[in-house]
Amino acid sequence: MQPVSNNLCFGGKQLKFSHQSDELKCEMNFSVYLPPQAQSKAVPLIYWLSGLTCTDDNFVQKAGAQRYAAEAGVAIICPDTSPRGENIPDDPDGAYDFGLGAGFYVDATEQPWSDNYRMYSYIVNELPTVLAESELPLLTEKSSIMGHSMGGHGALTIALKNPGKYKAVSAFSPICSPLNCPWGHKALSGYLGEDKSTWRDYDACELIKSVKEKLPILVDQGDADNFLQEQLKPELLQEACRENNHPLTLRMQKGYDHSYFFIASFIGEHIEHHKKALFS
Hints:
Layout: E1 2-9, E2 12-21, E3 26-34, E4 43-49, H1 57-62, H2 65-72, E5 75-79, H3 119-132, E6 138-148, H4 150-161, E7 169-172, H5 182-192, H6 204-207, E8 217-222, H7 228-232, H8 234-243, E9 248-253, H9 260-278
Parallel strand pairs: 4-5, 4-6, 6-7, 7-8, 8-9
Antiparallel strand pairs: 1-2, 2-3, 3-5
Helix pairs in contact: 2-9
C-alpha cells in the first residue's frame, strides 16, 4: 500500500491508497474513511461498491457519507470498479457499460477479460487481506457491504454468496437481476460466455433461491429513476424474496432518480442500518 492522499474530514481522515493487485494484475486505487474513533481504537468497516463509470472517488466526493460514518464510528472502504491501466482490455467501442469502469464484480472466464477482470475475488479476498495486513486501525472481521446500481448488484451477490462474512447488506438502485436486463446480458455474456447457467452465480434473484443465511436486505429505489423498468427491476428481487421467505425492506422513494443526490439523501439511514449490525 502506497499513500496517495490524506484529508481531514469530520474529525477523521479521508485517505487514498494505491497497491499492486495480484488478482487484477495492475495497480489499483482504493479510498478509506477513518472516523475520529479510529485514533484510539480499531473500528468496524463498510465496503461501498460503486456503479458503472465510477472510480473510488465518486462516493467519497458526492455521497456525504463521512459525517454519518464519523458519528457511527465506522470506516468506509471504497474500491475502484474495474482494473485500470494501459494494458487492460476495454470495450472495443468505448461503451460505458463494459470494460473499464464496468467490472460488474464478477470473475471473468472469457478471454481477453479473464486475466484482469476478477473484481469478485478482489473484493471478497484480496482487498480484505491487504487491509488486514496493513497498519490501519480496522476490525476487518467486522465488516458489511453496500453499493449503488452495478455496485448494488455486487453488494447483494457478494453478501449472498459468502454467508457469515458480512454483518449487513444494503443497496441503492441495484441491478437486481442481470439475467433479465440489457446491462446484465452484455456484461455477463462478455465476461462469462454465452452459457447462461454460469450467470446465475452473479444474479441476486437466483442466489436467493438457495442461500443458507437469510441476511436481511435493505434497498432504496427512486421511482423517478430512468433505468428503473429496463435495467433495475426491483420487483424481481421483491418476488424472489417473497417466494423464498428472505427478509427484504424495499423502499420506493417518490421523485428520486439514479444520481448521487438520491444516495446523499438516504446514506445516513443506510449507515445506521449497518452500524446496528456491526455493533450488535
